Amino acid sequence: MLTDCLTHMGHKMNKCCRIRYLLLLASLTGFMNLVYLTFLADLRDTLELYTMQRSSSSVLRRQIASIQIDADIKAATGPSLSYLELLNLDLKELVQRYMASSQTIAKQYELNNLQEEPQEEQILVNHFHLSRCLPVPFLLIMVHSNPVNFMDRESIRLSWGREDNPVNQGSWTSSERSWKTVFLVGKTNSSKLNNLLRQEAQVYKDIVIGDFLDTYRNLSLKTLLGLQWTSRYCKPKYILKTDDDCYVNVLSLVQWLQEYHVTNGSRPLYAGNIQRDMEVVRDKTNRYYVSVMDVSRHKYPPYASGGGYVFSANLLPRLLIASQEVPIIPVEDACFGLYMQHIGIKPLHNNKILPYVFCDGKENSLNERPLCHLRDPLVLHGIRDILQIQTHYNVLLMTFLPTICSYVDNQSFSRNFQQSC
């Protein structure tokens, strides 16, 4: 009898706690909505409506996250602020800086209505517009960028691209996990655009400009430019090659690389989304065309997809020798794979790098996926402009507040999506 009474009381207490929890959640939601609307009103004079709509989900998540206190992060003196509170304070400034940038260099490009003339291929990769990188980073991120993509580069700088951004600072940071981002670009036939690009390079000091025309079939030259510059001016432990329409979960990436370095540092690394049995294109009208003189085999050896692959920097001397012995072909990632095969390095498949890039059908596309599916991948393809900032904030929140995704991960609609393709 006493046991039944206690059980009944326990059920009533649990029910009461659930009701109190729901009431508290409702109160917090109302408060957050008020803060959110105030935030939008405050930015009304500087943000376009379209931009606010696209970034609203990120803002709301950060406002909700600001109620969480991270006791591990304390200021040296004075009152302590949690990491999530710092995220909340920093968002408005970053969005304003992004919008301000769109009114400067990028706006000049639009106003001048710069038209590029048809471009011819060139093979000149012996000139740099960026000096050495100090301090030497643990990870160097080489981003292939089109000269006209001013805002793609700016959004990367304001999010995951720069280690010194407040959003990337916390108790997990150390010299062993440092990173630096550089953008690799070629030249154009427009003198005005080239001048704007040089201005940007002088301001940010994170652009390497090669003496070749920036065309698709010159992408292999762009990779070779990065290898040459890194070998001469930078001595990282690891290098990630990616594109300016890719998002890099840089905090998770450097953590994975550090763990790899501790246990397997003596083994050379070449990892990514590995492509196998890819046929060499012989159709001269196809932009992937490669002649029999350059590649005699019918299929390429396995190679990592060009949207994102990471490799050991101590392979640079051997890779540069390989680049002189292996023909340069216009398929950038396959060309790099030929270099790796030439020096005897086998690629390692990592299902967290570009996991959705080859998904077939709209229902499996990146835009249709639950937001929580963006938390674990190390590199995602198809993220541009201000969505770089939004994705970075969302990933940070989901990483440091894992309960946000615990409910979503258990739902049937989420399980219907393939975690990799």
Notes on the protein architecture:
This is Hexosyltransferase. GO terms for molecular function: hexosyltransferase activity. The chain has helices at 2-42, 49-65, 83-102, 105-112, 150-157, 191-204, 219-233, 250-264, 316-325, 332-342, 387-400, 403-409, 412-415, and strands spanning 139-144, 179-187, 207-213, 238-243, 246-248, 270-275, 303-312, 348-349, 379-381. α1 (2-42) runs antiparallel to α2, α2 runs parallel beside α11 and α7 crosses α10. The termini are far apart. The chain is 44% helix and 12% strand. The protein is built from 13 helices and nine strands. α5 (150-157) links the parallel β1 (139-144) and β2. It has 421 residues and is of the alpha/beta class. A seven-stranded mixed beta sheet has the order 3-2-1-4-7-6-8, sandwiched between helices. It has a domain at 101-109 and 126-356 and 366-407: Spore Coat Polysaccharide Biosynthesis Protein SpsA, Chain A. Residues 6-80 and 116-127 have low confidence and may be disordered.
